[in-house]
Amino acid sequence: MYGMKERDAAVSKTLEDLNLNQRQGELAGALSGGWKQRLALAACMLHRPQLLLLDEPTAGVDPQARRDFWEEIHRLAADGISVLVSTHYMDEAERCHRLAYIAYGKLLATGTPDEVLHAVSLSTWEVSGPPAELARLASRLHGLAGISHVTAFGNTLHVTGEDEAALEQAIEPMKAAATLTWRKSRPGLEDVFIHLMRGEAR
Fold first, then answer.
1. Hey, how many other C-beta atoms are within 10 angstroms of the C-beta on 192?
2. Rounded distance between C-alpha atoms, residue 22 and residue 87, angstroms
3. Bridge pairing between strands 123-128 and 181-185
4. Residue 10 carries which DSSP code?
5. Which CATH architecture has domain 121-186?
6. What kind of fold does domain 4-97 have according to CATH?
7. pTM surpassing 0.90?
C-alpha cells in the first residue's frame, strides 16, 4: 500500500513522464483526443502494473500524438513492463517486438515482424500512375490466375501473388501502358495480413 507521500510522488512522476503536469488545471473533457489518451495511460500507470493491456490506444489521434504515445509505450517496455497492444494499423504493428494476427476469431500468425513476413511466401509489385488508370487496372487484375489480391495504398496499387512466376505472367500484358510505373516491391505486414485474412474468409 502507498502512503500519501509515495502516492503523491507516483502521481507527480507519472504526470511528468507523460508531459501532463503542464495541463493539471484543465478539465479532462476539454482535452484533445491525444491528451485524453495520455491521461488514460497515466491513470493505468499509477499502481505500477507489471502488465499493460491497451485496446487501440491511438485510434482517432493525430500523427504526432501517435508517435509520442508509441515512444512512451517503448519507454515502459524498456522499464520492464509487458505491454499488449491491439491495433488495426500495420505501421504500428511494425513497432512491436512480437505480433499475433487474429481474424474471424482465429490466430493466423505469430512471431517477430520479420518472422511473420517470412512465414508467408508472397511476391508483390507496386504500381503507380494516374488514379483513374489505377482504378481501371485494379478492375482488370481482380480474379486473374496468379494474383491473390490487389490493394490500393494511397496513389499506388500492391499486386500480390503466392507464385512469383504466375504473378509475373499475369501482369506482363499490363506493363505496356506508358502511364503506369511497375516496381518489384517487398511485401509488407499489411500485404501479409490481408492475404492471411482473405484465405481464412474463403
1. 24
2. 29
3. antiparallel
4. H
5. 2-Layer Sandwich (3.30)
6. Rossmann fold (3.40.50)
7. no
